[in-house]
Amino acid sequence: MAASTRPKAAREERAPAIPAATPDGAGAGALPASLANGTAYLKAELSGLSTGPGVYRMIDRRGQPLYVGKARSLRRRVASYTAPAKLPERLRRMVAETALLEIVETHTEVEALLLESNLIKRLRPRYNILLRDDKSFPYIRIGKKDLRAAPEKAGRWPRIAKYRGSRREPGSYYGPFASAGAVNRTLNALERAFLLRSCSDSMFSSRTRPCLLFQIKRCCAPCVGRIGEADYDALVAQAEAFLSGRDSAIQRDLAGRMEAAAEALEFETAAYLRDRIQALAHIQARQDINLPVPDDADIVAAWREGEHSCIQVFFFRAGRNYGNRAYYPRHDKSADDADILAAFLGQFYDNKPPPRLILTGAPVADAALLGAALSEKAGRKVELAVPRRGNKRKLIEHALANARAALTRRLSENASQRQLLEGVADTFGLDAQPERIEVYDNSHISGSDAVGGMIVAGPDGLVKNAYRKFNIRSTRLAPGDDYAMMREVLTRRFGRALREDPARETGAWPDLGLVDGGRGQLGSALDALAELGIDDLPVVGVSKGPDRNAGRETFHTADGRSFGLPPNDPVLYFLQRLRDEAHRYAIGAHRTRRANARTRSALDDIPGVGARRKRALLNHFGSVRNIERAGLSDLENVDGISRTVARTVFDWFHAET
Fold first, then answer.
1. What is the pTM assigned to this prediction?
2. Beta-ladder partners of 357
3. Cα–Cα distance between 646 and 657 in angstroms, integer?
4. 86 vs 60, 91, 187, CA distance in Å?
């Protein structure tokens, strides 16, 4: 996509009351956030705007994105914001906060729509309709055969496996599946039906005898030659045909071969073919909707109650239901249903290929433009349709029922969560219920590979994209000094908060901090905050009860009080869950760091020694210990190691001698 980017900052000669805003907030203090000034600034920028298509971004005085929009005519669209009386309250607030207008001109409106969706997902402006929890979907991938590989190499025998991420690796991809459970169940059945290998290439190359999967009839053991290459290629072709929807011919072929084997009294072969047929039937039987379904389509239906919405997406591929997932986009209560669906679809398909048919429960804003944009992205025609009758409408009604039920459950859970947060506020004497709770914990083994973890919870539950880990950096800590580790975690966490958001306007500051530990850990946390000049953040220590029994926790506050809660108190259970989640997250981060440390070599830290030189040294000396003991002349004799590099390596290991 060819486009030109042009920031439109306020200029003194054209709008002296609106100084240019910069991303780091320079000049922010001179900008009054008022609707009149915001409107005046946008009017001043109109003359320099193109009448062609493009994307515009509204930026506030701190450099934070407010809104991203696309336009067929940039000048006309921005001009619509200069008439405040015609704008809803949400957009009036946005105009009042606008300090900077950035423009990206595009060749077509389709390009503008694709760019808009990408920028909304990346920048997450607070006045846009936002798709939340847009995780990648799992696929099933069958690798491509490498004809250049030797017959005993893994590349000669394609692998079937679950796959996430960008589809850069060669092979065939089938999906998406709504969940890891759905793809795992399908994979298990496919392994029984087609006996393709699922092991990694390194495991394949190291096998000298069949593994357990061969014994339980889920692999044909190509690693040790239990099947010929031509026969394995036939199994791969059958698996690809089945996943592409051509399953009836495969089943007829297997049934015919089973009957022939039975008539020839080859009962073991017949039983093997019977098991494969049953595995295929197992996949076909796992359908949640007993209706004729389209071959390749997504069913999208939204249910709304005020400012809350649930959008259900059902995935159908090759005539099979691959599951469904619920989404809860963030939007203002004044947002139009058609705009919510359009924003959702644009962001949803930004990082995944759209199917040939998308069925929606209601009309979508700019449906023709969105269809053209998705078609351009997919490289083939993508159709958007709103079915009114027949089986397709029944699919929509089914998705709507699921969306309504999911939203009802979520609103009920949110109400319960609000009650718990109110209980937390009462327990610790907070002025209001906390909108953001942060919990801190450390994990290490005798001080090694120490990691601090921070988890976040709010009215909608755990906010996992706000979790943070802190690799303990200080080299002056005594091994296992939990107090000093906690001090470092809090210092780094709030030191950054003071740099990035000193006015506490973004909602990234907690209303309550929980520290896993007793008075010692709490004291360290309070000392760290005091050094940063923060004296108004409530922090509570949570220590385990006698014999570390759950349910007998003691809470320590900054004013010196220590108390417990009744064993059946819902607030106690809630705080326990938060503490346990922080503990789980910190332990996981510590284990990851420890595992990475095991794979590191002392050579990794030597300047100028990359992967190739490290390999040359290890191949020559056999181990890091032998490299450390080698003399300078011995190092110079290694192929690929110059005299300068040899001196660097020698000095690295003998710096103290």
1. 0.65
2. 297, 383
3. 17
4. 22, 10, 55
* Crossing angle of helices 229-243 and 247-263, rounded to 10°: 130
Give whole-number Cα distances, 94 to 91, 98, 112, 246, 316, in Å.
5, 6, 21, 53, 40
* β-bridge mates for residue 67, sequence order: 58
For residues 307 and 430, the model is more confident at 430
The predicted-structure confidence for 33-68, as pLDDT tens digits, reads as follows 488 888 999 999 998 898 999 999 999 888 889 999
Helices (H), 296-358: 337-348
Please work out, in degrees rounded to the nearest 5, the angle formed at the alpha carbon of residue 436 by the alpha carbons of 433 and 440: 120
| Angle at CA of residue 461, ends 502 and 537, nearest 5° | 30
Please, are residues 529 and 535 in contact by the beta-carbon 8 Å criterion?
Answer: yes
434: left (phi over 0), alpha (psi -120 to 50) or beta: beta
Tokens of 241: 């045909």
The two three-digit tokens of residue 350, written as one number: 């930004």
Query: For 38-86, what is the HEC assignment?
Result: HHHHHHHHHHHCCCCCEEEEEECCCCCEEEEEEECCHHHHHHHHHCHHH
Dihedral of the CA atoms 351, 352, 358, 359 (nearest 10)? -80
Residue 212: count other Cβ atoms within 10 Å of its Cβ. 8
Residue 178: CB atoms within 10 Å: 19
Of the candidates 368, 356, 360, the residue with the CA atom closest to the CA atom of residue 337: 360
